[in-house]
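so my prof wants the structure for this chain in the C-alpha cells format not the other one, which i didnt know existed until like an hour ago. anyway here's the sequence
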Amino acid sequence: MVMAAWILSSAWAVSAETFETFLEPASVVDISTPYRDRIDSVHVRENDTVNKGTLLAELDSNVLKSRLKQTRQAAKFHGGIDAARALVSMRKNKVRMLEELEKTGNVRPQELHVARTELVMAEAEVQREREKLQLRRLEAEVIETEIAKKKLTSPIEGVVVKIYFFISRHISPAK
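here's what i got, hopefully its the right format
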C-alpha cells in the first residue's frame, strides 16, 4: 500500500488531499538456475534498479574454469600431429624408394602395395590428429558456454524485489 499526496492548485483556491492507492508491478520474474551449485557472488541488493542483461549473481564455476584452462592447453599441443606428419614423410620416402626399385624389377608388387597402404594410413592419422585438435577447441567453446550460464543476468529492466539465497548457499534446480 502506498500513500500518495496530491496537491491540486488553481488560480482561485489551493487544497491538499491524501489518496490511498495500490501499485502492482507490470510483471514479476523469478530467476532460478538449472544448476545445483554454490552461489559465489551476488552483485545486486534488494531495491536495486537493473537493466536487461545486468549481472545479478554468479554460481561457482571454478571446476569449469580449470577444465577450460586444461582444454585450451590441450588444444595447443601438437606432438601428435607432428609425429603423424613425420610418419607420412617417412612412408612417402619408402614408397618413392620402392617405386624406383620397381623400375628395375627389384621389388615385389606386394611390398609396394603394403607401403602405399601404410602411407594412406599415415595420412589418415594426420587427419585424425587434426580432428582431435578441432574437438578440443570445440570442447573449450562448450565449457565457455557452461561458464556463461552460471552467470545469472536480469531478463528484464526492473527492480530487485527479493533475494532468496545468499553467498555460499547451495541452490537446487527449479522444478
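also thought this was worth mentioning. The radius of gyration is 34 Å.
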